[in-house]
Amino acid sequence: MQQMEHRYKVLVIGDLGVGKTSIIKRYVHQNFSANYRATIGVDFALKVLNLDQDTIRLQLWDIAGQERFGNMTRVYYRDALGAFVVFDVTRSCTFEAVRKWKEDLDEKVRVPGGKRFTAVLLANKCDEEKDDAINNIFSSMEQFCSELGFISCFETSAKENINIDEAVNCLRRGRHDAH
Ligand code: GDP
Ligand code: MG
After folding, report:
1. Separation of 19 CA from ligand 1 center, angstroms?
2. Residue ranges of the chain with per-residue pLDDT less than 50
3. Which residue, judged by its Cα, is nearest atom 15 of ligand 1?
4. What is the pLDDT of residues 135-149, one digit of tens each?
5. Residue to mutate (ligand 1; options 13, 22, 122; most atoms within 8 A of CB)
6. CA atoms of 128 and 106, how far apart (whole Å)
7. CA 61 to chain CA mean position, Å
8. pTM to 2 decimal places
9. ipTM of the complex
10. Which residues line ligand 1 (CB under 6 A)?
């Protein structure tokens, strides 16, 4: 059977401190560090998956330092096939920023070859107690996701390794999955 190689560029965006770098580290290197170190410069990590006879090269792009919407350049967004927009369940202001991040994506991303751009929302740090405002939001999360054009939302923890693989698989397949 012919072997196929697929390359996917996936963006991980969201406010400072929500856990973007930790999610990438957990997914690619299977580790977690509680020491806070802000990422400097744009960085990316590569994960190679061998599925049946296919090889999938997932390039996860981290953002760094300039975590303000409107600040990301088109170069960073270029040719991306998907994005995770991350917020922190302990800080509702990071959820309020999700809409802005998504709007920035919609404005700047051009997907190659007419493929569909896929965005998945990640509610990270689910190992911690949720902020009250976030608890309320969760009752209407499905509606929020469909309004903003996210195919799905996952409660994740980079710390406890919860739902990270599931979220990546969902984004990779580009369709709605169970949470
Ligand atoms: P970034 O600025 O979005 O890249 O965020 P980082 O990945 O640097 O994480 C910011 C802080 O949150 C660090 O101290 C991490 O250890 C912590 N953190 C990240 N993910 C989780 C998580 O799932 N649970 C908990 N409890 N802490 C996390
Ligand atoms: Mg970072």
Report:
1. 4
2. 178-179
3. 34
4. 999 889 999 999 999
5. 22
6. 31
7. 9
8. 0.90
9. 0.99
10. 16-22, 34, 36, 39, 124-125, 127-128, 157-159
